[in-house]
Design goal:
By secondary structure, chain A is an alpha+beta fold. The first copy, chain A, is about 30% helix and about 20% strand. The longest helix of chain A has 24 residues.
Chain lengths: ~350, ~350, ~350, ~350
């Protein structure tokens, strides 16, 4: 259950305080250029310690390739990427060793597995998302070969919403802001929360462009179902919208339908997916992250002995997980699409004839 | 890709105008009472033709059991449920044979498979959800044995939102309304749309109660990820929220965190899931359906020859798919939970010792 | 666990004395001609009651298509095939209701599931193989489109072995004999066993010809591993050999190696598979079936109350399951290959470029 | 396709001349003692360079644990084991860079993937089996907790067959010989082949004891089907027999049936499996390995340019892969059983009630 995808299949491993995290990517087609620098640059985007808007923990997050690449190309064998953990001190966790941090997974992991890995989040730590990001970099290179582009950025923080989407600008923004006119207000929302020892939620926008019609495997691996599952599976995500999203439930059919003319769709309320299959229009996804549960204010909780306790967290934490979540959501979208691209390959006799003659 | 679940695994089959639809359910534990009347009663809830709020198409939707049951009990063999289609006339579709209905899956199925099954929705028809509902009835009986309850109802239609949730009342309501004080306004929204030849969107609330902590398989089959994938995979769903949902992205950590005392959680913003694993609190899901794309107003579209055309739909359609969608979302939640219940069985040595001594 | 294959995925259902058996085939590429007569003709080959060498039970085994086919072509939707059982009387089983027939699955199913379906073999009945055969017919049609041929026949019965392989002759033989010079002796072995109230084992040869190099998915879905698993999973199979088989363990490398010249392999000890991937040479498989456990001689066994009992079976049974097993082994080989053909489609960038340009 | 198992799921990675090989084991129940020394001792059994009966290549094969273990116990998170390659020189392969070694996977990997990793076997190298062995050690510890024992040894080499099976003796034998009276002749067969620059085939016997009735998941993950697939998937295996094996095809039902009395089975021709489910009797498997294809005699082959060439291999190779294959077959049997043990956990309501009350 630590694997994602069917044909482009990523298995991640590692805990926040173990010796290494990483992933094995099975199903990468042979002959794809594997660009180590690009993988590293993608991982660096979510690296902690870069700005005041993220946790100040330092990790070099250096990616190593163990297998599956020969002379710069994928060989068809599984590709293994590993990142050794440097910052394994868990002193920060001494005072919470036996209690369950509110709105963290401490409680549920303990209830499920009967084991308490008190050194931070263990397997449930956001640290694991570095492995997703590394895998996502390979997926993006595969998609690029067929023209498909996956972009993302911060749409809203603490309710301050973008009014325009500039994905190029987002790349240069310290908080991946999509709307430069809202960036300052969004940054202020993060810093205000941080200064108060609190945190704040946010919303990420992911756009997939230049995708052909036909991707998605009905009925139980639809493109929208798979994307929603992928996004909701990211730490801290509480809602996923595609196209018109929540608003679609308030509209009339005459307002929400995407009529067509001979050149194609005249609108894109659908967000690029109909019947679980891509239409060729842009796929638009909104991913809503809750505020970081790690706050420094005094909180009440339970300990392992079932007693009520009060405590305050120490350490360094992201005041807004949505910011770095933008990189992770981008990677998960790429992984989902890469899988769909491979799965679609055998779906018609026409495709098979192209391959096997 | 027509299968759902890992251990409690449902494979559905059938098209709107084929001879039968149905499902094969693999992994039902041996020794579960299989109650035909209950299955039929669940399927009847989503049966067309019952009220003026649903399509007037008539189908008896009589469920037959082909396999897997002996003397009223599941045997461990796959259970096959079939519903023969009675209403296979596709006259209504003559005028749309070669054109793509806006916001339907006609276009995308054609682009993917190169085949045009012009007799209604074919595989993408909502008719397939009868099979999900039948399978869901068996899942619900399994869950009930362990006290787990899955309930659902209409939360909003066309923006008219419930202010209270009464799942018992919803069972008796023609539109499965959760709030009797809003029911009339919600009914009016449906009928107004219907009379205008239009349709309207809506939102369903699903609540899973009395669930123990520990269900959900991290990291790529988390309970919230799986539920979101299941819900977004239902025809017409465009957004899924869990717990605080979209609103979580606007809150501070101090507002959204669920603090605990020795008796458990003091609030439930999480909606019963942390780290992808159930907390034991109620699981609260909102599922947003777009308005039915089948409307009777004149619309523009493309035909198979890539020409712009105008047309008007004929036939009988639900003015609000969310209403019957309530039954389907309920079934999908039950199927997801049943799978998690089985998957969890082998996750600790303690569990295995209970079984194997 | 009632599904076979990854991309060409067959789920079978049904018991010997239920109302229907059948299968759902998911992943059939859209646009394949689905020939009902051919499917029926394949199923008829293993139909009981045809000759004195098989059981005298009568079943018309008429195959119905429920879904997935439109105007003679596969649509990409799951194809459902069903065969209704006509001969559901289980009188023959009255005297064995509470005892475990030696070398049948009665005992193990009871121990696993705690349920006793005493009406014949239930799910473990050879009757289920009719569904495999029907699915195999579709797989064979797919393979044929790319020139691949799957043939089979009886190699040995009771130790009487063929010395030459004539697959065309086998088609006309009542016992599917591969060597007409051995056919009479093999028939005699069957009839002698039958007259003595006994049964006899046999060996099937399956040959896959005109296959291209490159099929098979290393390392845990190798072509030989998958074929061996498929064959050993057929009722009554106790050994599987590929190429030189058992004999390879007695040879020197210099004897067993297949040297090459510029035209290709100079021998085929490998049986057409190296490193789990097809070489392009014929794939040669021997499948060894035990004698039918259903014999009419007095036998000792245990009953459900754990008592020692003596009994004699009644009813009609195949004196040699290998004969009809030839048809089943053929179908399983075809299903395995069809899956490999689809899985291979996405394994290189070159293939993907052929599809997506 | 580099993963094995459903619930106890092992994904292996790495090539003979890459930087590391290893595996990720997903589904290990939380709370199992993970004994590093035991894992290392199992891996050491198949380590090259130990005796004159194996290749003289030196590798320390030191296993590192990256994840999934905390304070000596499995946590429920994926366990990653890695072995760094020390001996990455591929000088020995200079003269075969562009030609296909007969009966190796060079040819088929090139045909499938279009990539030539000429540094030895690459992904198809037997080196990968070190990862299987490490994973198998964890599986064996799990099985031991429930009393199940997996043993193996050399049954035959070059046709010299054991007449008795002493698994304890095999542990102390340099060639894992099961019959000390045949050991010298078997050793001689290996050394004779080695001195002649040739190699020799062999047969391994695997015995699984003290297993309860009920393991195996019909119909397409039967215990015998899964074991056969696992064994045939090991490099160089050409035949698999269970119980009476090939011989069953020559017997009468009256000879092959295992009659019972109140104490259980009176014989074990079945080799411990009926209907794909364990009977409780010992599971007996014979695994036939071909002779090592790497021989030093002059051979003819094809090169990448499709020319006929003659060549002689250099380097160090096992003269009989069956010897170390004994360790690998043992591991694969353990992995198969561990998966079945977990899969079986949810198969009856009785089991679920034991867990969930």
């Amino acid at each position: 259950m630590n694997s994602f995808g069917v044909k482009f299949r990523v298995t991640t491993f590692g805990e926040s305080h173990g010796s290494a995290i990483g992933c094995v990517i099975d199903g990468v087609p042979a002959g794809l250029e594997i660009d180590e620098e690009y993988i590293q640059s993608e991982v660096d985007k979510r690296k902690p310690g870069l700005t005041k808007f993220a946790t100040q923990r330092k990790e070099s997050d250096s990616v190593q390739i163990f297998s599956g690449v020969f002379e710069g190309l994928s060989t068809g064998a599984p590709i293994t990427l590993a990142i050794f953990n440097e910052n394994q001190k868990s002193n920060d966790y001494e005072n919470i060793k036996s209690l369950f941090r509110p709105s963290h997974a401490d409680f549920t992991y303990f209830k499920k597995y009967g084991i308490r890995d008190y050194r931070g989040g263990g397997r449930s730590s956001a640290r694991e998302t570095a492995a997703r990001t590394a895998a996502g970099a390979i997926a993006k290179k595969l998609l690029e070969k067929f023209g498909i582009k996956v972009q993302s950025g911060v749409f809203a923080i603490g309710g301050v919403e973008a009014e325009s989407l500039d994905f190029e600008y987002a790349k240069t923004s310290e908080i991946f802001a999509l709307d430069r006119l809202k960036e300052e207000a969004q940054k202020a929302a993060v810093l205000n929360a941080k200064e108060a020892g609190d945190s704040v939620g946010g919303c990420i926008f992911v756009k997939i462009s230049n995708i052909r019609a036909g991707f998605g495997e009905p009925l139980y691996n639809k493109l929208d179902g798979a994307l929603a599952g992928a996004m909701m599976g990211i730490n801290g995500v509480k809602a996923v919208e595609i196209g018109e999203g929540v608003n679609a439930s308030k509209l009339k059919g005459s307002e929400n339908n995407d009529q067509m003319d001979k050149t194609g769709f005249m609108s894109n309320h659908a967000g690029g997916i109909l019947g679980g299959i891509s239409t060729g229009a842009d796929i638009d996804i909104k991913v809503h992250f809750k505020p970081t549960p790690s706050i420094f204010l005094k909180q009440r909780t339970q300990n392992e002995q079932n007693e009520s306790v009060e405590f305050s967290l120490k350490g360094r934490h992201d005041p807004c997980i949505a910011v770095r979540g933008s990189v992770v959501a981008n990677a998960m979208a790429a992984l989902t699409l890469a899988d769909m691209l491979l799965l679609n390959a055998s779906c018609t006799m026409d495709n098979l004839k192209k391959i096997y003659g």
